[in-house]
Amino acid sequence: MDVVGLGALNVDLIYQVDPLLLGLEAGRERVGSYHEFEDLLNSLKSKAKLRIKNGGGSAANTIYALAKMGFSCGYLGKVGKDGEGDFLLEGLMKVGVNTEKIKREGRSGLCVVLLGKRKDRSIIILPHTNDTFSDSDLDPEYVNEAEFLHMSSFLGDVPFKAQKTIARKTRAKISFDPGEPHASKGMKELIPILERTFILFSTGREVEILTHHDYKEGCKELLKLGIEIVACKLGEKGSYILCQEEELEIFPQEGKIVDTTGAGDVYAAGFLAGLLKKLSLAECARLATLAASQSIRGFGRKTYPGQEILSGFTKKGR
Prior knowledge:
Layout: E1 3-6, E2 10-16, E3 29-31, H1 34-47, E4 49-56, H2 58-68, E5 73-79, H3 83-94, E6 102-104, E7 109-115, E8 121-126, H4 140-144, E9 148-152, H5 157-169, E10 173-177, H6 179-183, H7 187-194, E11 197-203, H8 204-211, H9 215-223, E12 229-233, E13 239-243, E14 247-250, H10 263-276, H11 281-295, H12 311-316
Parallel strand pairs: 1-5, 1-9, 2-7, 3-8, 5-6, 9-10, 10-11, 11-12
Antiparallel strand pairs: 2-4, 7-8, 12-13, 13-14
Helix pairs in contact: 2-10, 8-9, 10-11
């Protein structure tokens, strides 16, 4: 197996509406209570248009994208014993993801994504069964079958502890995309994972939260922990890649922007695809950038790239 994912599995409900109309801050991600979530959905019925219902979760998006590119992928996580759980599993299986280690319990996680006029987004999450993922749900031998373990943030402390456990036990190379929820826990809490991480994907803001430095200086600090590659995602400014031997600044691809939800997750998929194909660091970054740029041309996972994106890179590079 090429990559196993570990992270939250959510049903994304993507609405087009100015977050400020609902009293929400644009560009941020946070957890909502059950009652707040219900009130928000009721408000959205009259004020917004539902663009798409989609499978989501950062690591799940990355694994979906990798599988669509033709890589062998599996997943560890939890979905509910409900119709939303069926929806999530069917979406992953459709592109060939092995779902045998995804457990079913309670209610599935939900995520409302609000897209503003400038294509910025606000995210409100109701984790449900994701918060119950624990050490007992881990399968180290299953993970050890893969070259990479790709992890992204859960919101609860119990699944975060499980991620630290598997980071300690696995022989797979760790790919880690903490997201703002994990980054906000601080460097001390993340050290058990960061010290075992092969490649770290993080936004400039997350690097600054973690290190209290600007992103370039912060990436250098993170590299000192033993991380092999730090890939810093900078949105419309592109990305900054750092390892011991190289420092790269990659400019973004020009193109149509419809929905940026999951773009960073597809970026990670493109980069991991490059590593699996043994491409140079620069080619990995360019493949990641191209994959992300394709993903934002439509809503949800519909525009995630397929195997055709690899042809120009595997044969002659770009």
